[in-house]
Amino acid sequence: MAEPSLLGVGVINDYTHPGTAGGAISQVDSTGTVNAGVVTQINSGNTFNGHDPRILGFFNTSDSQKPPRALVADYNYQAASTYGVFTPHRNVSTWGNPENISTSTDWHTNNPYSIVTNGNDMYIMGYDQNTIVKINTTNYTYTNTFYTYTPLTGKTGHGVDMDKITIGNTDYIVALFSNDDGSYGNYGDSQLVILDFSGKTISTCNLNANANSLNINITGNTPHAYITSYGGPQNAGGNNGSPYTSKLQIVDLTPPSTVIQTIGPKTTPVDAGDYIDVALVGSYAYVLTANYNDDFSQYTYMLVKVSQANLLNGTFDGNSSYTATVDSGATWLLAYDGTVLWFVAGKQVYTIDTSVAISSSALTLRANANDHSSDSQGLGISGAYGQLNTASVVIPYSATAGVSRAAARSAVSGGHTKFAKVMLPREVLEKLGRA
Questions:
Q1: Roughly how many angstroms between the first and final C-alpha of the chain, as a whole number?
Q2: What is the Cα–Cα distance from 240 to 231, expressed in whole angstroms?
């Protein structure tokens, strides 16, 4: 009997009062079954004091029988954050007690943005640092700082995303970093760094400013990375104009890594918004653009379905697309788990039918940020509802009961965790200390 895909989300009240305690981790599966508040605290009595619950799903790759895990973080950029390692379950009211509780002080990293696993080792990239740390998952202890990124002159480096890739017979980490001056207004080039598992840098590739997502696929025998970027500060209406330009770039990861295609603003049908995310499904790519309006009351997004072959040629030829405007919500994600394509659009969670052209009928609403007590699709609980804060696939779809491994190159696989993007005005980003 098939078992559905499971998405975990962080739920909060709003983005403008980050000092207010409260939040929850909730879940929805790909049939639309919602369980609100599966994690409401990491430590007893600590109900997400940082008002910033994070979730990243991951696998231990040394033991195929081990179930998926979820790293839940109570992020606090002004003090130590608390981490709990939980075992997610479908259709339950609670995930129970954490397997491990640690802090950002214990693990030497804060504001986790991406996880790569390799055997019993978990590699965590934090936005607040320019480092990747190595954690032993047999006891969840800090091993070492695996890699320290050197930012551009006069800038501060931030970890944005990373993935694991095999080139030839060798495994590598592909890590994406942005560079800014701390003002959320002045960005330098982003950089893509390929590392082997000894920590040696194999190659570095310069990219557009303020990169926000990394997605990898193998085309023939060539590994390609699809990278989206704002091109500068986040702005109302997006960066499809002077002086900043949002871009979708494709990199051939074969060392030395090289940008082989750049798709810029106003490439039909994309005539507004920023490139935010890409999901690679079979021979197709799903491209997401989005932007908020002048008073931050609404977001407008576009989904484009196009063949990867045409993107590699620099066009959206043969595409289908869909555009919508939704109430203000900052969390955005395209995540393919090998079978199910999830789409988080601000306050709403959808699955996308990948067998048809993209349109409103291809999207099925599965959940929203409302209070579950008054809305069966609501992911919120009393005291924590109204906005989604983060999202990550925590258990992939399984065609056979008891099998929980995802296909390679998916949103939660043996090597990689995909994490939702946050789109917020600069003044709110400064309050939150967020990317």
A1: 41
A2: 9
Checking if the pLDDT of 401 tops 90, the result is: no
337-365 pLDDT, tens per residue? 999 999 999 999 999 999 999 999 999 99
Give the residue carrying structure tokens 């296909």: 407
What pTM, to 2 d.p., does this model score? 0.95
Q: How far is CA 87 from CA 21, 43, 53, 68, 249, in A?
A: 24, 16, 16, 7, 36
The answer to whether the CB of 392 falls within 8 A of the CB of 420 is yes
pLDDT in tens, 195-246: 999 999 999 999 999 999 999 998 778 999 999 999 988 888 887 666 678 9
User: Does 59 have pLDDT greater than 70?
Assistant: yes
